[in-house]
Design goal:
The protein is α/β, with parallel strands linked by helices. The chain is 45% helix and 16% strand. The chain has 12 helices and 13 strands. The chain has an 8-stranded parallel beta barrel with strand order 3-4-6-7-8-9-12-13, surrounded by 8 helices. The chain has a two-stranded antiparallel ribbon with strand order 1-2. It has a two-stranded antiparallel sheet with strand order 10-11. α4 links the parallel β6 and β7. The termini are far apart.
């Protein structure tokens, strides 16, 4: 599949299929299986500062000595982080595909610390899993976005490897935010993160988990914002995430402006053969339409290049239904 070679974050990769940060990328054995299945790159399961803190607190539950508490906290924290870093280092030794580290912190001071340690471990790039749940109504939305931008700037200024930012879609001006992210030094953005969503069991009157997997229809919002943002903000790479379950949605994402596609839920639901299925579909589609390189496809139907750019602007149904009587 020579024609599928592409670049993402300045990295040469054999094809545009990137396996998202998840349990699928949580060990060296799993990462090697993904490479054997044909993945172009993997994002290692995120290192969550919040989870480390929870585990450290649990270990300290029976410790009443302040000295012991400090010692155990530091030991538990370092042990958890070091295990993650060792996995990255081993993956770099045993795999040929790019290994992208993923970090999610809750305190500003740790972003740079974790990022530098990931770089030292050999990660080819970093993906920042950023999201602040706005619960304080006294904080302006601009202040929240500023926290994102300051964090990105800090990380980018302290590491030499490329940095991407995995965004949620709940922003007022996504293209404007991506422009500012680019100015802070990031090389790419991933659109979009799929967050945990609560549900309510109306018979037992309790909160329950919503289905954690995406579905193909989730890609529609991704396509809209990929198309618009890639047309308005150049110089930064884009990756489509959420709803990419098959070759059809993968090709749509490339046409809309994605340099790569992040795949996760489809692998959980249908196995690693999905990787081959998607890549073979892209190859067959390229042959039918006389494309020889992935770069020839990317963005050819985005907001700037579409024959009907208004289709990406349309948000209400009135115009659609008025023409279908």
């Amino acid at each position: 599949m020579e024609k599928l070679k592409t670049q993402y974050l300045g990295l040469d990769i054999k094809n545009p299929l990137v396996v998202s940060s998840s349990g699928l990328t949580s060990s060296i054995e799993k990462i090697k299986r993904l490479e054997d299945a044909g993945a172009g790159a993997v994002v290692v399961k995120s290192l969550f500062e919040e989870q480390i803190d929870i585990e450290t607190t649990a270990l300290n539950y029976y410790s009443y000595s302040p000295e012991a508490y400090d010692y155990i906290s530091e030991y538990a924290r370092d042990n958890s982080i070091n295990h993650h870093l060792e996995m990255i280092a081993e993956a770099k030794k045993e795999c040929t595909i790019p290994i992208i580290g993923s970090i999610s912190c809750i305190s500003g001071r740790e972003w740079v610390s974790f990022a530098k340690r990931f770089e030292d471990a050999g990660a080819d790039a970093l993906e920042l899993n950023l999201y602040i749940l706005p619960l304080d109504i006294t904080i302006d939305s601009v202040e929240i976005e500023q926290v994102y931008l300051e964090t990105i700037a800090q990380v980018c200024s302290h590491v030499s490897i490329p940095v991407s930012v995995k965004l949620g879609q709940y922003f007022t001006n996504i293209p404007g935010l991506v422009k500012e992210i680019y100015y802070r030094g990031a090389k790419g953005v991933v659109m979009f993160n799929k967050f945990y969503e609560p549900d309510i069991d109306i018979e037992n009157l309790k909160q329950v988990n919503h289905d954690i997997f995406s579905n193909p229809s989730d890609s529609r919002s991704v396509l809209r914002w990929l198309s618009i943002t890639s047309a308005l903000v150049s110089g930064i790479d884009y990756s489509a995430s959420t709803g990419i379950h098959d070759g059809t949605n993968a090709v749509k994402a490339l046409l809309a402006g994605a340099n790569t596609i992040h795949v996760c839920s489809a692998l959980y639901q249908n196995g690693l053969s999905v990787i081959t299925d998607i890549l073979e579909f892209i190859c067959a589609w390229m042959k039918r339409h006389n494309y020889t390189n992935i770069s020839d496809i990317v963005g050819t139907m985005n907001y700037a290049n579409s024959s009907d750019p208004l289709a990406y602007e349309r948000t209400q149904f009135m115009k659609y239904y008025s023409s279908h009587k």
